[in-house]
C-alpha cells in the first residue's frame, strides 16, 4: 500500500492525501528496509570488483616495502656520516682542507683540548712529514682492519717512525656503527737553561710561566705533533730578553723533545790594555756590576739588547787592586755584537810592581842570609833541627841535607841576583863565597810563605 511521502499516511488509491492534502499521484513505494533492489551485475562490474580485491591484497606489502625503502635510505644517510670509514674520511678531508676548527674538535679529548693554533701546526706537520695521500691511505687502511681483527687501537706513523695519530674504538653509534676516537700523541717539551731564568710564553692561547735553574732541565708543556715557534720572554739577573722558543716534535725519537732558545741578545768583546803586568788569575771584566772571569777570546754575553752596558775591568798585583777605565754603550747603541777597550793605568802598575820587586828582593835576600847562617850552624853542630824553619820537610832536598849535613861547606856574603815568581813559587839565584874566597853560585826554589810566614826551600841546585 502506498504512503504519503510527507506525513506517511496510508493511501488507498487516492491521489490527494486526506490528512495533509498533498497530491501524491506520483508517489511510489519507499524501498524496504530489509529488501533492496538488486541490479544484475555485468562482466565489467565483476572484473572491476575483482581488481579492487587484488589491490587491497597488496596494500600491506606495498606499505612494508615503502617503509623498508625509507629505512634503507635512512641507513645509507647514517652510514655516509657515521660509519668508521665516513668518520675517517671526515678527518682526512678536514686535514686536506686546512679546517682547523674541525680538526681541533675531532682530536680533542677531555684531558687535552686542542686549539686552532695547535691544529694548524698539526695539519702542517702531517702534510710536511707524510703528505695528505699517504696520510689518507694509512688512516683508511687501519680503519678497515678494525672489522677484520677487531683490535683495540691503531697508530698512524710517518716514514721516520714518528707517531702521528692514535685511532681507537669508543662505543657505538646508533647501535650499528663503531664510534672511532681520534687522538694526537703528545710529547713533553723540555728546556735547559745555562743560568737561572724565568720564561713567559703563550701556547695554544694560554699564557705560561716556568722557572729554570742553571743546568737543570725544566718542562715547558706537552704538545701534539708539530713544528713550534713560540713567542717568549726570558728574564735573568741581567735583564729581560725578547725572542722565541723553538722545537719540532719530529726531531726526537723519545717522549721528550728539546726546545731551543732564540732570543735577541747582545755580546761585547772587551780589549784589556796595560793589564799584562797584573797577577795571573786576578784579572776580571766587570759589566753592569757583574764580575766575570777573563774569557779566551775576550767576548762576553749574552746581555739584553734593550739595556745599556757599562764595562770596566780590575786586577791585582800581590793583593794590590787596580781598576781600569770604564766604557758605556748607550741603550740605543747596543747591537748584537759590540766592542770596547778599557785601559789600566800602566804607569801606576809599573811603579807598584817595582816597589814590590824591591820589597820582595829584600825579603828574599834577608831569608837567604838567615838560611845560610842556619846552614853553617847546622853543619857545624850536625843538627838538622836548625834548618827546619827554612827547608820544606819530606822533600828530596831535605832528605839530602839530613844525610850530608856535616859535609856542607860554610858560606858567607850571600847575595840574591835574580828573582822570578810563578804560581806561588820563587826561582832565586844566589851568589856567595867560601871561607877561602871561592865564588859559589846556586839556584833555589822557594815556596811562598802564607799568612806572613817564612819562605820554605823546596829544591836546591848548585851551578
Automatic annotation (TrEMBL):
This protein's name: Membrane-associated protein
Spans through the membrane: 58-78
Protein family according to the UniProt entry: Belongs to the tcaA family.
Main location: membrane
TcaA second domain ranges (all copies): 84-183
Domain TcaA 4th positions: 277-344
Membrane topology of the entry: Single-pass membrane protein
Amino acid at each position: 500500500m502506498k504512503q504519503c511521502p510527507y506525513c506517511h499516511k496510508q493511501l488507498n488509491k487516492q491521489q490527494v492525501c486526506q490528512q495533509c492534502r498533498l497530491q501524491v499521484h506520483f508517489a511510489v513505494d519507499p524501498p524496504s528496509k530489509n529488501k533492496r533492489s538488486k541490479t544484475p551485475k555485468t562482466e565489467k562490474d565483476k572484473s572491476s570488483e575483482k581488481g579492487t580485491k587484488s589491490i587491497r591484497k597488496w596494500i600491506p606489502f606495498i606499505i612494508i616495502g615503502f617503509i623498508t625503502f625509507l629505512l634503507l635510505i635512512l641507513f645509507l644517510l647514517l652510514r655516509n656520516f657515521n660509519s668508521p670509514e665516513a668518520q675517517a674520511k671526515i678527518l682526512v678531508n678536514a686535514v686536506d682542507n686546512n679546517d682547523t676548527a674541525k680538526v681541533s674538535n675531532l682530536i680533542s679529548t677531555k684531558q687535552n683540548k686542542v686549539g686552532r693554533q695547535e691544529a694548524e701546526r698539526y695539519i702542517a706537520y702531517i702534510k710536511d712529514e707524510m703528505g695528505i695521500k699517504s696520510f689518507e691511505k694509512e688512516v683508511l687502511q687501519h680503519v678497515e682492519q678494525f672489522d677484520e681483527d677487531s683490535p683495540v687501537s691503531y697508530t698512524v706513523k710517518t716514514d721516520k717512525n714518528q707517531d702521528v695519530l692514535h685511532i681507537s674504538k669508543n662505543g657505538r653509534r646508533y647501535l650499528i656503527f663503531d664510534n672511532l676516537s681520534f687522538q694526537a700523541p703528545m710529547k713533553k717539551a723540555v728546556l735547559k737553561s745555562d743560568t737561572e731564568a724565568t720564561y713567559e710564553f703563550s701556547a695554544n692561547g694560554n699564557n705560561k710561566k716556568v722557572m729554570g735553574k742553571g743546568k737543570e732541565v725544566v718542562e715547558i708543556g706537552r704538545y701534539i705533533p708539530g713544528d713550534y715557534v713560540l713567542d717568549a720572554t726570558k728574564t735573568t739577573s741581567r735583564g729581560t730578553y725578547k725572542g722565541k722558543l723553538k722545537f719540532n716534535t719530529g726531531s726526537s725519537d723519545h717522549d721528550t723533545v728539546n726546545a731551543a732558545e732564540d732570543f735577541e741578545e747582545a755580546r761585547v768583546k772587551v780589549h784589556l790594555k796595560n793589564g799584562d803586568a797584573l797577577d795571573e788569575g786576578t784579572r776580571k771584566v766587570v759589566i753592569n756590576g757583574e764580575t766575570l772571569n777573563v774569557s779566551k777570546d775576550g767576548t762576553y754575553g749574552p746581555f739584553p739588547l734593550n739595556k745599556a752596558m757599562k764595562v770596566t775591568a780590575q786586577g791585582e798585583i800581590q793583593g794590590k787592586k787596580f781598576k781600569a777605565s770604564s766604557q758605556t754603550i748607550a741603550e740605543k747603541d747596543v747591537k748584537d755584537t759590540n766592542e770596547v777597550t778599557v785601559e789600566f793605568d800602566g804607569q801606576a802598575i809599573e811603579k807598584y810592581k817595582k816597589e814590590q820587586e824591591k820589597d820582595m828582593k829584600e825579603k828574599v835576600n834577608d831569608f837567604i842570609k838567615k838560611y845560610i847562617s842556619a846552614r853553617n850552624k847546622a853543619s857545624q853542630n850536625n843538627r838538622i833541627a836548625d834548618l827546619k824553619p827554612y827547608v820544606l820537610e819530606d822533600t828530596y832536598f831535605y832528605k839530602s841535607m839530613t844525610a850530608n849535613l856535616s859535609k856542607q861547606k860554610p858560606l858567607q856574603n850571600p847575595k840574591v841576583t835574580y828573582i822570578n815568581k810563578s804560581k806561588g813559587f820563587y826561582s832565586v839565584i844566589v851568589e856567595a863565597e867560601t871561607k877561602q874566597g871561592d865564588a859559589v853560585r846556586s839556584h833555589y826554589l822557594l815556596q811562598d810563605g802564607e799568612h806572613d810566614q817564612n819562605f820554605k826551600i823546596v829544591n836546591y841546585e848548585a851551578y
